[in-house]
């Protein structure tokens, strides 16, 4: 018998007042329980009980051992219960790293609803514009562009990779709208900044060909929200995700350009996914949060 079980049997014997009753409570025969306690005494090289045919009583050494190990085992039992609850009931701190622009529009507005449904979960949210992030180093969930390579991760699609080329009605009134990908070169473009890479917008033409356009313009940023605001203010053309510009297009604040030609900026064509580590039993806090995000996500996006 392992030492931990033997110590539990020792405490149970004190509580029940007899070895046989303690053994039964742990699924052990009286003989097996008695042998286990004698083995524990041999290991400790001391006597834990004074035994008679009808009664067992702890020795002074037994009482001291019980006083020391009882709070330790109670703390261990509580930790085991807490760990089990984290798989069965959403509880604990959920650490999320999320793509900034997506999180501000489609995650943060729904946190209150999630907390109302799962009040025992605390949320630690970090916003970033970095790409290639994966759950690691204490991070439970990553909301990112695309799926990471490898079989260690599970992804849940939250939004499509569709991009929209847009400008404000005011800008179009002043400068007109491009009629072709080549004509985009005649307009100031608002560019998502990529380190050490020329800004390229890629179009799929009517015949299915790929056409790359090296764009330039008066404003670059690593923030999609900043580029969106610049487009609303009439500074030029912008190419951003539909999940970011959909409401602006629907309200008329931005007007789609070249709508029949799918386009995307350089490497940024991926969908938005919520990604966590693969697990046989996913912690309930992660499962609940992913289910919440999927429930509030726009199914058409």
Automatic annotation (TrEMBL):
Keywords: DNA-binding, Transcription, Transcription regulation. GO terms for molecular function: DNA binding; DNA-binding transcription factor activity. Residues 1-59 form the HTH lysR-type domain. InterPro entries: LysR-type_TF_proteobact-type (IPR058163), LysR_HTH_N (IPR000847), LysR_subst-bd (IPR005119), WH-like_DNA-bd_sf (IPR036388), WH_DNA-bd_sf (IPR036390). Gene3D superfamilies: 3.40.190.290, Winged helix-like DNA-binding domain superfamily/Winged helix DNA-binding domain. This is Transcriptional regulator. The keyword Transcription applies. Belongs to the LysR transcriptional regulatory family. It comes from Neoroseomonas lacus. The lineage of its organism: Bacteria, Pseudomonadati, Pseudomonadota, Alphaproteobacteria, Acetobacterales. The keyword Magnesium does not apply.
């Amino acid at each position: 018998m392992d030492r931990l079980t033997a110590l539990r049997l020792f405490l149970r014997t004190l509580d029940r007042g007899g070895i046989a009753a303690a053994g039964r409570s742990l699924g052990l025969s009286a003989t097996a329980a008695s042998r286990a306690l004698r083995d524990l005494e041999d290991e400790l090289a001391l006597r834990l009980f004074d035994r008679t045919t009808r009664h067992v009583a702890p020795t002074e050494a037994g009482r001291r051992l019980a006083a020391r190990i009882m709070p330790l085992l109670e703390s261990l039992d509580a930790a085991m219960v807490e760990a089990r609850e984290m798989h069965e009931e959403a509880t604990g701190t959920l650490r999320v790293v999320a793509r900034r622009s997506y999180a501000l529009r489609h995650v943060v507005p729904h946190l209150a609803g999630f907390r109302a449904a799962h009040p025992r979960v605390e949320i630690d949210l970090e916003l970033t514009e970095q790409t290639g992030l994966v759950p690691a180093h204490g991070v439970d969930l990553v909301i990112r562009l695309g799926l990471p390579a490898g079989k260690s991760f599970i992804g849940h699609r939250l939004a499509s990779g569709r991009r929209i080329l847009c400008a404000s009605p005011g800008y179009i009134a002043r400068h007109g709208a491009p009629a072709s990908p080549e004509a985009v070169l005649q307009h100031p473009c608002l560019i998502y900044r990529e380190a050490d890479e020329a800004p390229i917008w890629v179009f799929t033409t009517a015949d299915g060909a790929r056409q790359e356009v090296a764009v330039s313009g008066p404003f670059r940023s690593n923030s999609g929200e900043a580029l969106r605001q610049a487009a609303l203010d009439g500074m030029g053309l912008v190419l951003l995700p539909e999940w970011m510009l959909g409401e602006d297009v629907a309200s008329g604040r931005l007007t789609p350009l070249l709508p029949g030609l799918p386009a995307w900026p350089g490497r940024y064509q991926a969908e938005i996914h919520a990604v966590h580590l693969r697990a046989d039993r996913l912690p309930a806090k992660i499962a609940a949060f992913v289910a919440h995000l999927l429930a509030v996500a726009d199914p058409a996006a």
